[in-house]
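Student: Please help interpret what follows.
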Amino acid sequence: MKSTMMPVQLSTNQILDRAGTYFGDQNVLGRLPDRSTYRRSYREIRRRARQLAQALRDKAGIARGDPVATMSWNHAWHLESYFGIPAAGAVLHTLNLRLSPEDIAYIMDDAGDRVLIVDDVLLPVWERVSPLLRQQPRVIVVPFSGAALPAGLQSYEDFIEGDATGYRYPEQDENEAVGMCYTSGTTGRPKGVVYSHRSMVLHAITGCIPDLFALSARDQVMMVTPMFHANAWAVPFSAMMVGAGQVLPGPHLGGEDLLDLMEEGQVTMALGVPTIWMMIWQAMQKPTRERRLVKGMRMLVGGAAVPPSMIANFASHDMHIVQGWGMTETSPLGSVPVIKPKHLALPDEARHALRAMQGIATPLVEMRIVDEAAGLQPWDGKASGEVQVRGPWVTGGYHATPDDPGKFTADGWLRTGDIGTIDPDGYMHLVDRSKDMIKSGGEWISSVELENLVMGHPAVAEASVVAIAHPKWGERPLVVAVRRPGAEVDAPALREFLRPKLARFQLPDDFEWVDAIPKTGTGKFLKTRLREMYRDRVSQSPD
């Protein structure tokens, strides 16, 4: 028997048209470099995205499958690029502006970018990248600050000028490329992950379900997560699909700035890495005035483990953290803690601990735990191994290096490099990254678990843990920590705080207090840098 369903191809163009047609009055609230705000309707976004598509095709000669790069903050022009570039049949390539010029140049050369759309405030970054490229793209400058453009550069507004009413989208197969992002490159050269129209639309639909983003037309979503990082967790596509409003902070990511924008935009959901939420929490502890935030606001957190203490702190203000797990290779939704009926009667502390786990696999994603020596591991919450996944929005290879046996199993699963367990209810709990586990005297110590416990101390703003040498035990943990402003805590006091929570061999003796911990361009702790900084340090732990 054959299906009677229409063979309609999935496309992000459908999302753009739906937003402009049914939710044309919904808008984007954004902040400019001078901290003033603006609004742009979805009707305008659709019109201008189509103008961009037409200009890329007719003025820049962009053909189907050509990569077009963006180097931009979170703003309405960037959102137009999210849809206008695919509408031209091209591939949206978001560049991480926080990377080194050398890494950005490598990524652009590897992708083969034909055009670059760049903010005027980021031209100094581009000027450091340009001389390092093998091939120069055509440069289109977004007038984000409104400053006069240097001679020889073309304004985005001039470029998209023209009537695109009659513009027709190119006919494309749903499996053609729609976007690409590069991995963080913390363990080597960044690798390109290429998303399809099909994967992006399925991911957007799934992201809207109640146990994930729970998005609707009644929501206002603030994306603190950079739009250059895994497509802002693909939330712009989900928000446009259901007609949710969007709040885009631009370059202003301080705690007070974000709280002000949350209030002005009446934000119901926000997303960002834990370091962002730490800044917001610190700002909330020093209130400059009474704030009128939306009660029950959801906060989607990813990119690093979330300490249960952070979940409890925000819950006391009726702000609820939802932790997601994923990676660039998974588009990025891989798993999320789902509160099941049997959990509703649990005390708050137990539910916070549950939300601090990475949770169950999202719909359509399969997950397993594999030990290199013992093979497939049981779901007992104890047996650990590498987390491996597969699904319709999980990459099966990398751009320019499709075959990588170190990243993919023979039977087609992605090797994440994360070490975790899965309990009988299907909840995955990350123990560590495989490269970040500390082996001390034959026993494994989880750096992630130790980091979360350290950040549970009220005087600690953030902490990262790496291994350092020990003459007897091989490796011991070094805690690198940042104190909260005005707070006092020393190594002995922190060690006593940790003592009841850890086995003796897990208890650190080595501490380093710093003003800031180095991070990747996406806000993750840059442990490669920490290992380099402390490579000659020898642990003082007693024998």
